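Consider this record:
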Amino acid sequence: MPITRDSVKTYYDQNTRLFLAFGKNDRRKAQNIHRSLWVEGVQTLEDALNVSNANILKEIEAVAPQQANFADLGCGVGASLFYIYPRLQMPKPALGLTLSPVQARLARGTATQLGLEERILFAEGDFTSVPLGSDLDAVYSVEAVCHAVDPERYFREAARLLRSGGRLMLVDDYQAARAFSQAESMWLKAYIDGWYVPGVRTVEQVIEWAEKYGLRLIRNDELTPHLRLRNLPDLLARVLLFLGNHLPIKHAILPSMLGSMALQQCLHMGIVEYRFLVFEKK
């Protein structure tokens, strides 16, 4: 079946609590369902989970040292906002947008616990149609644009939201810019179907869309070497994928587990690259 906006929403409504419940202690503490990056000097999982957040924070500070006006599009349960917002100098109220009502409720609950409910606002909605004006200093998305059914619309909306000189930051997966073998295409499809990520495209395609709407690439960092991959021997992974696809289990956690395994294979084989991209509004 084709992946739709509603199927992505259902995927996260069904899985988010499980992602958090079965994560390691530092992941549950940070309420972070994104990937950890083990760059030089990082010692703990909590710090590794926040490497991407720290990079985004620096970009926001560079474009708006004070009173930053920004939004997290595809915010999950708010972990990035809860890290970034308190570290900025007198930021304006920020918006976190997610398709999932379950994620929005969890994020609002954490905001209340932290006393940030008047400063960080969480809403359920589509990041291709954001209820904000066109004066933001920064917009970012972490592992979110990959879920877009029509990713070009994301770049059109991000460009609309940003002021001149504003920045768009993306941490996400991108297809390698090369032809794939039949086996490689199989693993890519398994990842896309399992994780509901029809928006995984090449960096070159993303740059083309961004430039079409006045966004200029100013940073392109390869993050894959900083992941601790858990790829399996190919034959074992193929057997598990076959068995998983034939189990009579309907819950979305099963395709998520198969997609996670497929992603590890894709990253290991160089089919998919995990990158940090920064664009500036012309």
The chain is about 45% helix and 20% strand.
